[in-house]
Amino acid sequence: MGEITDEFYDLVLYSQKLKIILEDNSQTIANKLHIDYLNSILNDTVVLKKLMESLWSNLKTNSWDIDLHYKKFYEKLPESKMCPFCALQNLIDSELGREDYDHLLFKAKYPLTSVCDNNIAPTCSECNRRFKKVVDVLFNDTERRKFRYPFVVKKSFEVQNLVITLDGSAHPDLELDNKGEWVINFVPEDDFNKSWFLTYDIKIRYESCVRNGYKKWIKELIRAARINENNINTNSLKTYINKYKENYKDLYAEYPIKLAYYNYIEKNMTTVLHEYMERIAI
Ligand SMILES: [Zn+2]
Asked: Per its UniProt entry, which superkingdom is the organism in (predicted)?
């Protein structure tokens, strides 16, 4: 038992270094955090189960007040109170309840990290239940992934080295059956952003967000332009979009897809697009 116990002990210590485990994919030791490996070195499935049950119940009763944690987390969120994983859904007011807590590393697969308090994070139920579910953020089939929060909660959401663009999209025009085509790009396409996109199905969700939101965003923009500017022509509208984006820069940091849309129409403004927008905003 001696050597096995030492290895298990080392893995317990290692399992608490969650940031390293998630972000450094050269750490092959992460393979050993899998429940099958742990059971194999303990040579007994009951031991691990009993140990984890006792740790979980201790965590629940003594050291972890989940409602209080959510209250503090919610207070720290910027005004729009968006989910830190998708920036699409509002999280519930902490006075009314609390959101799901997602285990970044799924508890049934990686039991040791489940008692690590930064392994659990409040997330909207859509991210947690409909999209991520039990996706393994460490491995994609056999390939080791890199994973981290795409949005960091500070004063406002701060996009970590991540820009969303709609380059390559075809905007709907005046023809009735034209619904346009929305292309969602993320820059850079690095390992972190890739695993985030795949884990939370970000591409299809952002595409749906633009498809269902762009008319509202046009109305908002054109109506503001009508109030603030005299005689809007295609060129002055383009300048106005730039001003409008600046005005709401802090807010848009929380809505990366809306900002991407305004960037797109600023860049691709034509008289046809302008005419279409004026009609939408009637
Ligand atoms: Zn979400």
From this structure: Bacteria
Look up tokens 């969120």; give the residue: 77
What's the pLDDT band for 84 if we cut at 50, 70, 90? Answer: confident
CA 162 to centroid of ligand 1, rounded, Å: 17
Q: Which two tokens stand for residue 105?
A: 């590393």
Q: Distances in Å between the alpha carbon of 226 and those of 89, 217, 231, 232, 240?
A: 30, 14, 8, 7, 10
Q: Phi first, then psi: what are they for 181, rounded to 5°?
A: -140, 125
Are 104 and 147 in contact, with CB atoms under 8 Å apart?
yes
How confident is the model over 209-248, as pLDDT tens digits? 999 999 999 999 999 999 988 889 999 999 999 999 887 6
Name the most confidently modeled range: 139-148, 184-193, 202-211: 202-211
Amino acid at residue number 111: P
| Cα of 119 from ligand 1 centre, angstroms | 16
Contact 135, 127 (CB under 8 A): no
Q: What global pTM score does this model have?
A: 0.87
Which of 53, 25, 88, 36 lies closest to 258 in space, CA to CA?
Answer: 88
Q: Extract the tokens encoding 115.
A: 């008692």
Question: Residue range 97-102: average pLDDT?
Answer: 90
pLDDT tops 70 at residue 249: no
Distance 146 CA to ligand 1 centre (A): 19
pLDDT for the residue numbered 152: 62
- Residue closest to 119 by CA, chosen among 164, 149, 84: 149
- Helix crossing, 202-228 with 256-267: angle to 10°? 60
Distance 182 CA to ligand 1 centre (A): 21
Residue corresponding to tokens 């006075």: 95
